[in-house]
Write the structure tokens for this entry.
Amino acid sequence: MNAAVPQDIERALAALGAPLWRDRKQAAAALVGAIDGTLNPKAQLTEHEVATTIERLLDVMCAREPDARAGAREVLVRLGSKSAAAVARRALRRDQHGVHGDGRLPLLELLGEIGDETHIEILADVLSEPGIDPNLRAAAAAALGRVGGERAVTELVALLDATSDMLRVYALDGLYQASAVVPVARVRKLLESVHCRKPAVALLGLSRDPMAAPILVGALADRLASVRTEAALALARLDDELAADGRAGIVAVELAETSEEIRKRLREMLEHRDGEVRSAAMRLCGLAGDVDSIATILDVMDDPVAQERALALVRAFGPAANNVLTRAAERAVPAQREHLFRLVGAIPEGRVDPQLIEVLTGGLIDGSEDAAVAAAESLAKVGDRTSMAALYRAMAESGRLGEAAADAIAAVLARGSIASRDDLTLIVGTIWPHEGPLARNLCRVVGALGSSRYASHIVALLGSADPSVRVAAALALGRLPGEHEGGDALAFALADEEPLVRAAACRSLGQLASAQAAPALLAATHDRAPHVRAAAVHALVQLDNPIALARLRAIVAEDSAPAVVVQAIAGVGQSGLDQDLTMLMSLSLSADHEVVKAAASALVSFPSHRATAALLGLCVHERWDVRWAAATALGRRADATAAAPLRRVLEHERDPLVREVVVDALARIDGRGARERRA
């Protein structure tokens, strides 16, 4: 077919086979826009031109040029139902000739993607067509599965009675794609066929029938590896489906009584190259109570999903995992030690063998930092007093290991009684180190404990010659609740020569909310370092002290650092006063987009419709992130007067993230209106 189309459409059709990918994508986008009328609403194609263009696209899709075929298919898929009728008409014609003979193959595949139940009869006719190419039958069955629905499932189930194994395979595949629930008895007899066994096993996993469990467990010992892996995946799915129906544990009962041969097959699958199969096998080993499978898991834990499954498996086995992991520790190679340490940490706290605690403490001096950090993180979960000395030594290391060891000591102390926290004093002594990683990490321990009993030690560290220790001490003091000398010390720290110390002191003063915090922070808003001023303003906003409001207004008007202004805007936005509304509305015209976004967020708390109007104005801002912030704020306000303008915004907005938040804002507004009407 070579009917005439407008010149711009002709050029776009030709460009579908252009050498450059960018040109092909632009051509596809232009064709979609022209057909659905969004490209140029004033020059829409007539119905005849649309039909002709779709027919030309089908010509291209069935031609030999691969790039052009792919481009035409993309356009037809994006058009969806607008092109489905034309695709169906062509699929009815048996006189088509394509690249590989019968040209209906790409049409049937496409119909499965964009078709609906009105096209099931066409697909069913292809299935029953005598002498048809097997590939076409496969495509028709797959298309029926993708279209889905009761009628499609009925057609595919009827095909299970076909005399040809291949037809039954196509039917099983289609039923699986349709997520059809087929009676176990209907599928079970197909397991006798070597060709049908794998798809039949997959379909049994969707059956929601306990009768499928013993069949699938038996399939784990099938002589074909592909059937065994499919059985593992199907059993995991069946277990999910039965659990969702309130019948959890059925698969576990079947696996618990299974043979050693099947357990061996499951362990083999723990090393499968497919991560989904490995994950399913781990789950089934757990359901089977095969604790020895943990040793095999160490070889396959590079996959993050496998790591999570392995940890869950050890948690499920609990103390029973001790012996296996102890044996595994004796033979673990360096590459496995990190995973071994993490598995030990998955055993419930208090149930870990002392020998494994020793393995973890020994791991703190492992040559691999990743392994040593893993040992420290596991000791944070399962360690006890016996690991404290080794952890304290590890705290002297810089970087991740020292910090992980500090977190572990804090966790061990927190699990003990109040009296057991004296262990820290016993290890450190009365004179604490004042420099280096050990002093810094001691601050981390005290901050994590949140106990003011060590406040005097931390205050002393504020005088350290090491700036990093002073920063750590200032941060730790902010995490110590109650009345202590830390508040006064932090106020003095605002005069420290190191800006990072001053900024940390500001943050902690905001957290402590002590009596001297507000005056000290107000003074810090004049600091010469912008990030210190920003920290001071953020802390003042946290305090929500009315005496700070005038200073925050001045900062918005005078400060030259946008980061400081943004923090002050958040505080001004809490006032709800008309004068601050006027200021925020003026800031929505700022040239700095971060200031504009902050102003949009601050307008949420002002009830006036003027705030709504300002936010609606920002919904057409040139930057997508500003529009996103404005729409988010409108959603939080849920002002009914914004509904109609937001719907108009949605007509023209093209950014998917902005569209998503606009839709959410409209839903919130409509929901609030519905609640008010019910009230």
In short: The radius of gyration is 34 Å. The chain has 41 helices and two strands. The mean pLDDT is 87. Residues 270 and 278 are 5 Å apart (CA to CA).
